[in-house]
Amino acid sequence: MRLTAKSATLLGLVVLIALAPLFFPSGFYYRVGALIFVNALAVTGIVILTGWAGQISLGHAGFAGIGAYACALAPVHWGIHPALAVLLGAAVSAILAWLVGRPILRLKGYYLAVASLGMGILISMVLNNERELTRGPDGIDVPDLGMRALLKAAGLDLSNGEFWYFFCGIALVIGAWLALNLHDSPTGRALRALHGSEIAARTVGIDVAKLKLQAFVISAIYASVSGSLLALQNKFITPDVAGFMHSVEMVTMAVLGGVGSVAGAIFGAAVLTLLPQVLTVFAEYEQLVLGLVMVLVMIFLREGVVPSILRKIRGRGE
Amino acid sequence: MTLLSIEGLGISFGGLKAVNNVSFGVKPGEIVSVIGPNGAGKTTLFNMISGVYQPGSGKVILNGEDVTAMSPHLLARRGMCRTFQNLQVFQSMTVLENTIAGYHLQEGGSVLADILNLPASRRRAKTAEAGARTLLKRVGLERAAEREAGSLSYGSLKRLEIARALALQPRVLLLDEPAAGCNAVETEEIDHLIAEIAASGVAILLIEHDMKMVMRISNHIVVLDHGEKIAEGDPTTVSRNPDVIAAYLGTENAAG
Questions:
Q1: Which domains does chain B have, with CATH numbers?
Q2: Which of A52, A185, A191, A222 to mutate to test the interface with B (most CBs of B within 10 A)?
Q3: CB spacing of B102 vs A199 below 8 angstroms
Q4: How high does pLDDT run on average in chain B?
Q5: What is the ipTM of this complex?
Q6: What is the percent of chain B where pLDDT is above 90?
Q7: Where are the beta strands (DSSP E) in A44-187?
Q8: DSSP state letter for A138
Q9: pLDDT at A40
Q10: Cβ B93–A192 below 8 Å, yes or no?
């Protein structure tokens, strides 16, 4: 039963990514698709942290910022290949998450939200103000990953949009696969247990603080890789990637789609990435419509869109 | 030999002595019941023994080791587990998953193996599942295995908590009102289950309001009133003790 849910999600995702381009009216949509995948990757991390471990982070964009600027700075200053810079960013994010989370997650309650908020703001400030290194708010160029050229040499000639669409798509499938593995594993079960009843989780021997910390570190890595992919495909990055609004956006996407479900996270990321593109017609009403959508979802589909609809379908089936 | 010994345990909340200087011991295979009127401090005592509250005074000794105020997950490693009066199940997980959660310590393993779905991780999960199904059969919940725990009746949830605790293969088991809210038939089932667990060598500490059940299965009874131990002994001795009768009927403490 669980296994099929996992395979169904992954299969659905692969089919969607593979077939969606057939319906693209223009090449522009490859770029929108790639953006959706990048956001969905970060939101998958939020699902692990918030949906399963029950912790809230309001500074996850900080990790995306680290991932993004690792790709911008490491190749130029230390001669590290951009692909390795992604790993470097992930490692730095993981270590930072561990340092911030370790003292905080021993406490009960939602202290992580406040601590991560502060952390995110600090990272954003550093990126804005350390002009010597980051060139400040105007942003900085990011070197080419060089993989498209490799593929071309191997006989596969993709446009820039096509390449990043499929590259980020594959990254998302891998990210979703790892998250779903975790969900069904002993660790994932322990995570969901501590979300259900922390005291009972401790009683059965679950080291609650350690487990929450692991979830925080894992989700930081997701955000970091997402930031790296964003920087690499745009070949340019500004400190906005680490901004508070971006953190809030991640949480909003997760909550809209369904914070406990990987499929929901991807759906939420897709909707909130697409809506602003569609709503350009409404220009100044964009925020208004987004706000209204969120309010309606919270009233009528409290668990998030995907889990609520799945529950309704199952309910009818029985 | 005493497996669990409570030595002079006490705690105050805002000047009120909720539990004061309580001592007793539990041996392997023995069922010790803690009884007393509502508000006597029974659950508070349990919370101190199981590491939920930090005692203000006294010691908890488990198998010769001082485990006072030790975190519950570390106590679990040392073989102590408990159930809760106000039920603490993982509502949105299935009955089976709830029970498997009890195998957490035996499952062990690394997050990395789990996230990559390595064979080692799957093997551990499979072993735990097999064990959990056996336990569910033992408490009579095997047919509810795939149901969401939140949908179970109160009595079934009580048994689920016991199954989950047994998954840890505890040496000391603390049961907080396991028969509360159960009908006569269910109570008798739980009764047998507890006796069976004790017979397998587990030291059992029990809080229960159902006096018939307490008298039937206890080897030793500790009576609390206003946080103090007012009597202890075997069921016959305790039931004849005038202080105990007074505490229950309220003749001496009518004002309370």
A1: 4-79+170-249 (3.40.50.300), 90-155 (no CATH)
A2: A185
A3: no
A4: 87
A5: 0.82
A6: 32
A7: 140-141
A8: G
A9: 95
A10: yes
